[in-house]
BOS complex subunit NCLN (Chilo suppressalis), 554 residues
Amino acid sequence: MWLYEADGFAEIFKGYLPYYLLVALPIFIIMSPVNPVAASHEFSVYRMQQYDLHTVPHGCRSASFNLEGRSLTSWSTSRHCVVARVQDITIDQFMEIRSKAGALLLVLPKNDTVLSSEEKEHIQLLEMAMIQQEVSAPVYFAQWTPEYETILQDLQHSFITDDKSGTALEAIFNSVSSNGYQIVVSAPTPQKIESKPVTLHGKLVGRSGSSQTIVIAAHYDSSGVAPELSSGADSNASGAVAVLELARVFSRLYAGGSGGAGRGAPSLLFVLTATGHSLNYFSIKKWLEEQLDSADASLLQDVSFAMCLDSISSSDQLTMHVSKPPKAGGASHSIKERLRAPVNHKKINLADETLAWHHERFSIRRVTAFTLSTLQSHKDPSRSSVLDTYSEESLKNLVSNIGVIARALASHIYNLTDEASDEDWALYDQALGIEETSVKHWFKYLASQSRAPQVVTTGIPPTSGVTAALERALSRYMDVTVSVHSVDKREPEYTLYSPTRAVLYVYSVKPAVFDLILTVAIVAYLSILYFAMQYFPRFYEEYAKIVTGKAKVH
């Protein structure tokens, strides 16, 4: 029985199947990619910052696109998505892309620690320029992968412009042989998200009979051109970690007993806020309104000074930023003398879109305040950079600066001077010791994740994630009060938007001219095959006549 079936199967090969294979197989071979797995890729990408500040739009305003990928040197129209390394693009190129290209995809460095200081400064200035104005085209950032490197190299070498081609034939050949990429991001239309920033505060009560209060404050959010990539190690994980460590140190001093030196006269109020300079210190503004404008304003009834900590790990040299120069004999002047820090005096300009430093919110409410920072200017681009990451050198600077601040604050509270004896300082040295292990743990934890306002102010409940961790840490040393603030929907001071991340698909494609040439080649191939099959008997007769010397007899 199986012999008959085998004969039937053999009949297929005696029919037209070989001719079909002659037609189909070459077409499939030509059209199929060399490596089907490499024909498409899927990546996580992070959208550029989008927010409104006082109704003024900033950052990227769109999210989806489906465009052909091109390099910095080969793109030309709004039908192209420019793909480049972030260190390769200049500010002028970005301005041109912002107004003419369809989308922009920037790949971050493989390892930012190997970048030169000039390259880091260039990237930081580019970030600052990107966020100052609104951008209509979608802009995404991606972390480096080998696949991205391959795509970048393909785009740089595949599309050779006419002026770089020797002849017209070479230009056509380059266009046909090049490998292209179709880049697609399907993301929802940007939507406003509800933001509820949180302020945490706890108090170490001073000796009875004293009503003075010293405020130690820092914001714990971060800022960057891409919210999901802004870890903000120096600005301002360092300030938040310093507040936690100072709370631990002075909780021991105020507790007295073993290792303690006794409760100081002034009360110490530790404050952590969720919005920093990028959103004009909104949460500390709301918190001050709640504390100073309420019927019971006992918390800030007699503030000696407010010390704000912002970006204190980039070097071991602290600078005191003030709105008014400290008066001799005042509390802030006492701290300056003990810190031996240079003073940078900058008046508050209410006409500016944003305030320069954290302390200016206190100064506006006539509270003596200053900011300690290792940065010399509030315009330093490192305050809002994705390159602001953790390093062992920054940890070393942070531990040193916390120790300097703790010693200066303790010497002010307990009225110790340089002339104080070693026996006097010995009472405080044990409690003033900085726990480097704890500082390192919190510094690495905060610097390992995004703390952008879109992340830390939109949790449900508001005290989730990083905020909840900071609340638990501060609660170890004192009772903590959580204040949740709301943005006025009628006249919002700021508005945040989602999405902050998306999935990007990259498809390996050939240019349109390749499809045209391929079509012509297939038509030519089929035509040749058709005529060869039609005239094969005649050709065979002529061939037989030549070989045998006589015509073939049918």
